[in-house]
TrEMBL record:
SUPFAM superfamilies: SMI1/KNR4-like
Chain ranges of the Knr4/Smi1-like domain: 20-133
One Pfam family named in its UniProt record: SMI1_KNR4
Cited InterPro entries: Knr4/Smi1-like_dom, Knr4/Smi1-like_sf
Protein name: Knr4/Smi1-like domain-containing protein
Origin species: Pseudolactococcus hodotermopsidis
Length: 142
């Protein structure tokens, strides 16, 4: 198991994980959406195809198009709306206060998109760097 995923589980915080996605379902999403999911987020999807961390917290989308929300619905015109998200930003979740959580499909970096100012707010080197910061924030508050 990825050490960051193990660290997350070991916090004993309330989480909602879905069953992991299959490689086939991830490839299906990539083909349908014409994107390549970066490796760290792909590894997460294999563990949990959507869910919520630190309830009530960040909702993470999965590739299951029947689930709501999903990467399909999260990246639809309705969800992205008139936000100035660039073409390389794939919406992978929402914070409980409304900001988008995105992954840059070019670099693999994870971006918090401020939904009020319609601009990038924070950036992490990859999905697991984001998760580690969320763990640190939770454990410092607890």
């Amino acid at each position: 198991m990825n050490p960051t995923i193990k660290h997350l589980i070991d916090t004993k915080a309330e989480m909602h994980f879905h069953a992991g996605a299959s490689e086939d379902s991830i490839r299906h999403y990539e083909n349908e959406a014409n994107v390549k999911i970066p490796s760290a987020f792909r590894e997460w999807l294999l563990f949990s195809d959507g869910g919520e961390i630190f309830v009530p917290g960040t909702v993470l989308y999965g590739v299951d198009g029947n689930a709501k929300p999903s990467l399909f619905s999260g990246n639809s015109g309705q969800e992205r709306g008139t936000f100035a998200l660039g073409d390389s930003l794939l919406v992978i979740g929402r914070f409980n206060f409304g900001d988008f959580l995105c992954v840059d499909t070019n670099s693999g970096e994870v971006v918090q998109w401020n939904h009020e100012a319609d601009e990038e707010f924070l950036r992490w080197s990859n999905f697991f760097a984001f998760i580690e910061e969320e763990i640190a924030s939770f454990t410092s508050e607890g």
